[in-house]
Amino acid sequence: MSDITVTLPDGSELDAEAGETVEDVAYRIGEGLGRDTVAGVVDGELVSKDEPLSEDCRIEIVTDSSEEYLDVLRHTAAHVFAQALQRLHPDARLTIGPSTDEGFYYDVYGVDLDEDDLAEIQAEAEDIIAEDLDVERVTLDREGALEFYEDNPFKREILEEEAAGEDPVSFYRQGEFQDLCKGPHVESTGEIGGFELLEISASYWRGDEENETLTRVYGTAFETQDELDDHLAMLAAAEERDHRKLARELDLFSIPDHSPGCVHYHPNGMAIRRELEDYVREMNEELGYEEVRTPELNKAELWKKSGHYENFRENGEMFAWEQDDTEYGLKPMNCANHSHVYDTSTRSYRDLPERFSEFGNVYRNEQSGELSGLLRVRGMTQDDGHAYVRPDQIQSEILNILQVIEEMYGHFGLEVIYKLETRGENAIGSEELWSQATDALRDALRGEDLDFDVEEGEAAFYGPKIGVNARDALGREWTIGTVQADFNIPRRLDLTYVGEDNEEHHPVMIHRALLGTFERFMGVIIEHFNGKFPTWLAPEQVRVLPISDDNLDYAREVADELGEYRVEIEDRSWTIGKKIQQAHEDRVPYMVIVGGDEEAENVISVRDRMEREANDVSRPEFREHLDREVDQKHLEPTFLAGR
RNA sequence: GCCUGGGUAGCUUAGCGGUAAAGCGCGUCCUUGGUAAGGACGAGAGCGCGGGUUCAAAUCCCGCCCUAGGCUCCA
After folding, report:
1. Which of A465, A512, A520, A528 is catalytic?
2. Which nucleotide lies nearest residue A262, CA to C1'?
3. A75 assigned to a ligand binding site
4. C-alpha span between A202 and A205 (Å, rounded)
5. In terms of C-beta density within 10 A (0-12 exposed, 13-18 middle, 19 or more buried), how is residue A392 classed?
6. Which nucleotides of B are covered by protein (CB under 7 A)?
7. What positions does the entry give for Zn(2+) binding (predicted)?
8. From A216, A347, A511, A607, the catalytic residue
9. pLDDT per residue as tens digits for the range A538-561
10. Do residues A576 and A545 touch, judged by C-beta distance below 8 A?
């Protein structure tokens, strides 16, 4: 046997023999580590402790104190679910059952499950855990494996594709149950301390809606019941800050049954949106955009030229209909309209970049099951903009936009994740143009020193895209801002400028949205702030609370003086304690409390939603502070910070 | 669109074959209060929509709409 060298996480090297397993190597390092070994990470890949090593590699030993341990445990939990399912529903066919960031799922076929079934399976799974069955790796030769899955075309497909070259094939067995699996797994089912089945949903075999519909069961598992309880409590807390719930409590917006996916902004929600609009206008001006306004209603012909028609209408995503023998539609994007504006005069290379912005109302017929509060809607307003540039201007144009995006997101304290999305199957235009455009975006991201993930094949049909993603309360990622480089639509619509050489050239189009859509962006920040908006955004910035009704006149005087802000007076005949409680519930940044004492001295008492307070505050001082705080877009009320 | 939940007063929820219940909110009155819930009374719901079963349906069955979480798809 030939010697191999394994490199440990601390950089040290160890000699081993080819054919030794991860566990053998752990024993070489130390007796204790060997005993505690659950699995290994070899060259970045999580593998079973029984995995034989055949060549030089980097290795990391996974024990029950490693981060990867939870992954391994959850993978075993998926098997426990499958075992419980098979005990109760022997006809169910297993397909795949991986661990995920939050837990695990298993996709099964041939069985309909509802919540009562889930409860029974949960009870059976708990028994399996209590039985503390040993989990062991076994191998079958290919023939045996195919025979074992005689009645299961899904597992046979896996054997023939993913596990094509493998013979023997790896299985894991616990009690009477065994499942085709590379592993790794924990040693026994008893290691699972907390196990919970959460959701049933439908999925498609290999994620393709042309394939069989499978039943997917989601669950999660932890080492201890306490950790599971904490996790469930966290999910409940996330529900508390759900933007749809906050919208009702704070009276921000509604999406009634008569217009699914279309938002009705209430005065409070509109106040926030107007602040956002003002902010975006300011930034658009800084970037040199000129605001335009284009119609929602157009002939379908427009999008047939631009290429939107085949990508939206033919997927059923565009609202379109026949009228007097002509097909009309609601715009799904603004690019074609802006391009028309560009095309109404002859442009010189000296004119470029030519930049148009619009708060464009667009409509997309999203599938009904996809709608989700403000985060996924059918009618939305993009803070859209298109810059028509010469090739030599692409780089600086994109850089400027990225810089502004970074600055803006800083003002919301939002953590964002950058994505570079590349050419997909629906792409129009040549590969060469695509790679030019992709390089331009990649260089800009690198130029700004931003970390980004590459998502292959995820781009829009006309060009690659930088997506700026944010997370919601449940940790789901949503794209908000975006920057896209497009060499294709200008060609399709035959947009030109006259170059220095007196020849016509196609400009490059930079599509961008800074916040994305006002809908999704608001959804994200409502949850991000948990409704506690910075003062500049808060629908109600100050609430004046009179101690008793006798102080109402003075309260009005104080409120009038703050007239340029969004100020309300609490005029219900409640106790001051009740008024304060209500103002906290409504998350108002500042409460101004006025009673006989304040009135006599011509001062106010100020309390903020962080429960800080000060008495004998002079009225001009508070107002001047508000001017500064709002102007500087502080994230939290700062008047009482130093007091 | 697909699967599993859900839709009862403005909101949150109870009721799950025998002609609708609570808390909050709202209205009126009493209380005029000093830093996170003062009190009394009252109004308010053909129980998502349409069919059916039954002497009787919020409750059971069928269809549809909306909604939540996933799947597929996108800002």
Report:
1. A465
2. B66
3. no
4. 10
5. exposed
6. 1-5, 7, 11-12, 26-27, 29-38, 65-75
7. 335, 386, 511
8. A511
9. 999 999 999 999 999 999 999 999
10. yes
Query: Could you report the per-residue pLDDT of A587-639, keeping only the tens digit for each?
Result: 999 999 999 999 999 999 999 999 999 999 999 999 999 999 999 999 999 99
Active site residue A382: yes
A571 CA to B13 C1', in Å?
A: 30
CA of A35 to C1' of B2 (A): 47
Question: In this structure, which amino acid lies at residue A148?
Answer: F
Q: If you write DSSP's letter for every residue of A560-588 in order, what string do you get? A: HHTTTS-EEE--S---HHHHHHHHHHTT-
Please indicate whether residue A511 is annotated as part of the active site.
yes
Whether A335 sits among the annotated catalytic residues: the reply is: yes
Q: Which domains does chain A have, with CATH numbers?
A: 3-62 (3.10.20.30), 68-237 (3.30.980.10), 249-290+349-525 (3.30.930.10), 542-631 (3.40.50.800)
Q: Which of A460, A479, A519, A466 is nearest to A335 (CA)?
A: A460
pLDDT exceeds cutoff 70 at A2: no
Is residue A396 within 8 Å of A389, Cβ to Cβ? no
A231 annotated among ligand-binding-site residues: no
Closest CA relative to residue A87, chosen from A79, A96, A76 = A79
Catalytic residue chosen out of the listed positions A117, A384, A472, A486: A384
pLDDT tens digit sequence for A170-187? 899 999 999 998 878 888
Distance A116 CA to B51 C1' (A): 29
**What does the pLDDT read at residue A485?**
92
Return the pLDDT at A498: 97
pLDDT tens by residue, A406-421: 999 999 999 899 999 9
Segment A56-100, tens digit of pLDDT: 777 777 777 677 888 889 999 999 999 999 999 988 899 999 988
Beta-strand pair A3-7/A13-17: antiparallel
Which residue's CA lies closest to nucleotide B25 at its C1' atom?
A249
E strand spans, A472-529? 477-486, 497-498, 504-505, 508-517
pTM of the complete model: 0.90
| Cβ atoms A332, A302 nearer than 8 A | no
- The mean per-residue pLDDT over the stretch A288-303 comes to 95
> Closest nucleotide to residue A573 (Cα to C1')?
B32
Q: Which residue has the least CA–C1' distance to nucleotide B30?
A: A573
Task: Say which nucleotide is closest to residue A209, CA to C1' distance.
Answer: B72
Q: What pLDDT is attached to residue A84?
A: 94
Determine the distance between A517 (CA) and B75 (C1') in angstroms.
6
Amino acid A219: pLDDT: 93
Catalytic residue, chosen from A308, A335, A505, A541, is A335
Burial A518-553 (b: 16+ CB within 10 A, else e): bbbbbbbbbbbbebbbbbbbbbbbbbbbbbeeebee
Residue A185 is labelled as binding a ligand: no
Which residue has its C-alpha nearest to nucleotide B3's C1'?
A: A202
Q: ipTM of the assembly?
A: 0.93
